[in-house]
Amino acid sequence: TIGTAEAYAVIERAQLGSFLLRMKQTDGSFTMHDDGEADVRGAYCAMAVATLTGQLEARLARGTADWLLRCQTYEGGIGATPGEEAHGGYTFCALAALVLLNQACRLRLPALVAWLSQRQMAHSGGFQGRTNKLVDSCYSFWQGGAFPLVHSVLHDLGQLPADTDLYHAPGLLDYILVCAQAPHGGLRDKPGKARDYYHTCYSLSGLAVAAAAHQLAGVPSEWVESVGVVNPVFNVLNARVDQALRHFAAAEAQPQ
Amino acid sequence: MASILASGEYSERTLKLSGEVIARNAANYTAWQFRRKCIEVLHADATPEERQRAWRDELEYCGKRGLENLKNYQVWFHRRSCVSNLGDGSRELAFVEEILAEDSKNYHAWGYRQWVLARFGLWEGELDFIGRLLREDVRNNSAWNQRYFVLKATADLASPELLAAEAEFAEGHIELSPTNPSPWNYLRGLLEPVGYDAVPRVRAMCEERAAAGGAQPGSDGGRVMAMGLLVDVLLASGSREELDRSRALCKALGEMDPIRAAYWRWRGSRIGV
Q1: Under an 8 A CB cutoff, do B148 and A73 touch?
Q2: How far is it, in rounded angstroms, from Cα B113 to Cα B149?
Q3: Does the annotation mark B71 as catalytic?
Q4: Reported ipTM
Q5: pTM above threshold 0.90
Q6: Rounded Cα gap, residues A64 and A43, in angstroms
Q7: Which residue in the list B16, B37, B64, B71 is annotated as catalytic?
Q8: How many whole angstroms separate alpha carbon A152 and alpha carbon B11?
Q9: Which of A31, B79, B242, B256 matches a 20 to 30 Å C-alpha distance to A22?
C-alpha cells in the first residue's frame, strides 16, 4: 500500500534524480518533461520531488530561485513564466518551490501578501485565481494554501506573530461547505458546475488548510483532528512527509 | 503510443497514428513529442522548402487541435515548436486574437502571445490591441498585464513622461469603473519602484476618492481602492504625520473591507516598524 517502505522502494531514486537534472534549463527553470514546456510548475515539481527523496543539491537548485523571482509581477502575485499574469496556481507553485529553496524571503513580500489578500472574494469568501476573474473552489488551496507558506516566511523574518492568519478562514470555510459541495457528494468549482475529482481534491485541501487556521470558531475539534495536519508545501499529511524524508535520508546513507 | 515508441518507427504511418492518439486524448504529451520527432526524422534530408511545407502542414494540424482544446498545454507548446521551426510568426498574433475573441483571458493564449512578441519583435500595434480589448472590457486584467509587459520590454519605466502618460491612462479607466482593481494595481505596480512623487496627481486623485462622496448604489466610488493606494503613498513619504494617517486608514479599511480585516490589522501594525 502507499506510504510504506515497500512503496518507496519502487522508486528508482538515482534515476529520478538524473531525470530532474535533465529537465533543468540553463536559465534555472525546469521543463515538465523532455521537450516540454517550462514554467513554475516544473520548478515546483522538481523541488518537491527532490526534497522528498533527499536529492535537493546545489546542482539542481542553482539559478532556480533567481528564475522564480522573475515570475513575480507588478501586481505582487506570480505568473507561469516571467511576464505572464499573476495567477493563484502559479503563485502557489513558485512560493512553495522558493520555500523549499529557503529563498522565499527574496520575494517582494508586502506586494505578494497584498495580492493574495485581494484574491479573497468579499461576498462569497472563496478565492479567485486572478484579478477580476470568478471565484473557483480549487483556489481554496492554491490561494488559501499559499497563506500558511507566507505566514511562516513572515514569521521567520519577525514580521508576523505566531497564530496569526492574514486571510479570512471562516469565509473560506463557508464557501467550501456551502457553495462547493455538490448535492450527492463531491465538490465543484462553483454552484452550477458539475463535481469532479480535481475540484474535490483542491476544495478539500483548502478545507484542511482552513481547518488548521487559528481563528476558527465553532468547528468541532474532533473534526479538525480527523482531517489531520497537512503540510501546505506538499499538500501531503505532515506525518507522511516526515516518514518519506526519513526513509530517503536512510537510503542516501546507504551507497547504491 | 507505447508500442509505437517501442517500435522506434518514425514514419508517415506512425505520424498518422499519433493523430489518432491525440484525437482521443489531446493532453498526451508523449504523442505530441513523438510528432515533432517524426517530422524531424522524416525530413532530415529534405530541402528547406520541403521542411517548411511539413512544418506549415503541422501548424495547420496544430491550429485545428488548438481551436478544439483551448486550455491544453501541449497544443500551445507544439505551436511554439512549429512556429520556431518555420521562423515565421507573422500570422500568430492574428491567431491569438481569434482565440482571445472567444475567451479574452485565456491564460495559454496570452502566454503564447508574449512569446511571439518577444521572439519576433512584433511589438508595434500591441498597445493599440490592448487599448481595443480594454474598450471592450475595462476589467480585463490580462490586457492590463500585457500593457505592463509591452512597456517593460520596449520603454523606460522610469521615464517621467511615460509614467505621467500611463498614470493618466490608468486614471481614465478608474473614472470608467472606480471599483475595478486592475488600473489601481497597475498604478501601484508602475509607481512603487520609482516613488509615488514621480506623478503627484496620483496622490491627489487618491485623496479625492478616499474622501467619499463618489458613492452610488452598488459602488463605493472607488473609496476602498483609493484608501488602499493612499496607505502605500503615505508610507512612502515617511513623515510622522503621514504614517499616523496611513495607520488610521488601515484601521478604517479593516471595517470597510471586512473580508480583509486581518490583513489590514497586520498592515497597520507594520507601519513605522
Answers
A1: yes
A2: 11
A3: yes
A4: 0.96
A5: yes
A6: 7
A7: B71
A8: 54
A9: B79
Instruction: Judge contact between B246 and B271, C-beta under 8 A.
Output: yes
SS3 (DSSP) at A135:
strand
| Residues in contact with B158: Cβ distance below 8 Å, sequence separation at least 6, in sequence order | B193, B194
Q: Tell me: the pLDDT tens digits for A96-118?
A: 999 999 999 999 999 999 999 99
A144 within 8 A of A172, measured Cβ to Cβ: yes
pLDDT 10s digits, B111-146: 999 999 999 999 999 999 999 999 999 999 999 999
A158 to chain B, any CB pair closer than 8 A? The answer is no
Work out the minimum CA distance from A101 to partner chain B, whole angstroms.
26
- How far, rounded to the nearest angstrom, does the alpha carbon of residue B255 sit from its chain's CA centroid? 32
- β-bridge partners, B219: B216
Share the mean pLDDT of chain B. 96
Q: How far is CA B28 from CA A30, B19, B64, B74, in A?
A: 19, 11, 16, 8
Q: Which long-range contacts (CB under 8 A, 24 or more apart) does A236-243 make?
A: A240/A3, A241/A52, A243/A3
CB-CB contact of B253 with B266 (8 Å) = no
The three cell numbers locating residue A13: 531514486
Cα–Cα dist A31/A40, whole Å: 9
pLDDT tens-digit readout, B235-255: 988 899 999 999 999 999 999
What is the Rg, in whole angstroms, of the alpha carbon atoms belonging to chain A? 18
Q: Do A85 and B77 touch (CB under 8 A)?
A: no
Residue B33 is nearest to which of A35, A117, A120, comparing CB atoms? A35
A177 touching B (Cβ < 8 Å): no
Residues of chain B with pLDDT under 70: 213
Query: What is the residue type of A128?
Result: Q
Query: Under DSSP, is residue B193 helix (H, G, I), strand (E, B) or coil?
Result: coil
CA closest to B258 among chain A residues: A122
| Residues 6+ away with beta carbon under 8 Å from A103 | A65, A69
Cβ atoms B80, A81 nearer than 8 A: no
Say whether A139 is catalytic: yes
Residue among A75, A81, A113 minimizing CB distance to B189: A75
Instruction: Check CB contact under 8 Å for B262 and A167.
Output: yes
pLDDT at A256 over 60: no
Report the run of H or E that residue A90 belongs to, with start and end.
helix A88-100
Q: Please list every residue in chain B whose beta carbon sits closer than 8 Å to the beta carbon of residue A37.
A: 73, 76-77
Task: Please name the member of B145, B180, B263 whose beta carbon is closest to the beta carbon of A85.
Answer: B145
Closest Cα in chain A, distance from residue B124 (Å): 18
Instruction: Return the higher-pLDDT residue of A252 and A128.
Output: A128
- Asked if residue A151 lies in contact with residue A200, where contact means CB atoms within 8 angstroms, the answer is no
